Amino acid sequence: MAERYRVEWTYEGSPLASYDTYDLAGAERYRARVAEDPIAEDVRIVEVGPE
Fold first, then answer.
1. pLDDT tops 60 at residue 19
2. Which of 18, 23, 29, 50 could form a disulfide with 1 if both were Cys (CB 3.0 to 4.6 A apart)?
3. Contacts of 9 (CB under 8 A, 6+ apart)
4. What is this structure's pTM?
5. Average pLDDT, the chain
């Protein structure tokens, strides 16, 4: 089974937003883009188990 990764973040305390991918490099690029947003908080990559 392929590993899955999720980029998670909040916007000014709002509920968690996320983006799922099977590509760690893609998750790192997406995390960097979200982190540039001044209202994005607690941006992190989480390894997700298989579906």
1. yes
2. 50
3. 16, 17, 18, 34, 40, 41, 42, 43, 44
4. 0.80
5. 89
